[in-house]
Specification:
240 residues
Length: 240
């Protein structure tokens, strides 16, 4: 792999450093907020993605070698069986005398080819299925993490900072200044972006359609949530 190709690949360590730095920034400004713990949970997920990626790659390589070897064996056995069957049918003393006598041989050939094709398809896709299960479990956790982050910002309403705002008996108490609320929203937006990057790490070495579709769904989800947050930031900026 060339240096240019390597630089185009998303790596675990840079993502982890960014999440760790964001966690420290949140802890410095909002040490008692639940958002800090959410960022710590995201950091743990990044570590888990890195660990699973290394373990899974080893298993996938082993599964790929085994599946390719079995595929060669099955194809060779199928060819030998077909050749022997055709040889016995054409050179035996009890020769086939009518076209109908060839039907059992044709059925056997078709059945052997179908079963061999099914076996080859299963073995060819087996390495990706080894990777898929654990990867989808991690992606499910990341999707849940995105919703948790969205819940943190959902109750923060910029309208509460307007002078004309009149709280009701069930209104949440306002415990953030305008600058703190804007910073809080920015942290949430950054965390959502990093959730998308962590999901992309899960698909960095995968060509599985199900995994790629799930990653794309999570990325679209986080972008949509972040867009709503920036709408709130725009309202805050309009108040100045």
């Amino acid at each position: 792999m060339t240096a240019g190709a390597a630089s185009e690949q998303l790596k675990v360590e840079p993502v982890r450093r960014t999440v760790a730095l964001l966690h420290d920034r949140i802890e410095a400004r909002f040490p008692a907020r639940g958002l800090r713990q959410a960022c710590a949970d995201l950091l743990s997920l990044v570590d888990e993605v890195g660990a699973v990626s290394e373990t899974t790659q080893t298993r996938v390589r082993l599964a790929r070698v085994c599946s390719r070897a079995l595929t060669v064996v099955i194809l060779a056995a199928t060819v030998v069986a077909l050749v022997l069957g055709i040889h016995d049918a054409t050179v035996s003393d009890d020769r086939l005398r009518t076209s109908l006598d060839w039907l059992p041989l044709i059925e056997t050939v078709i059945a052997d080819l179908v079963y061999a094709g099914i076996a080859v398809f299963f073995l060819y896709s087996f390495p990706e299925r080894v990777r898929r299960g654990r990867t989808l479990a991690l992606l499910h956790q990341l999707r849940s993490m995105a919703h948790v982050i969205d819940m943190h910002q959902l109750t923060k309403d910029p309208e509460m900072l307007r002078e004309s705002f009149r709280p009701t008996a069930v209104s949440r108490p306002l415990d953030l200044s305008r600058d703190e609320m804007e910073r809080y929203f920015e942290y949430c937006s950054e965390m959502l972006s990093l959730v998308g990057k962590t999901a992309a790490l899960c698909a960095e070495e995968s060509r599985d359609v199900v995994v790629l579709d799930t990653v794309s769904t999570i990325e679209s989800l986080t972008v949509g949530m972040s867009r709503k947050i920036w709408q709130k930031i725009s309202i805050l900026n309009a108040m100045t």
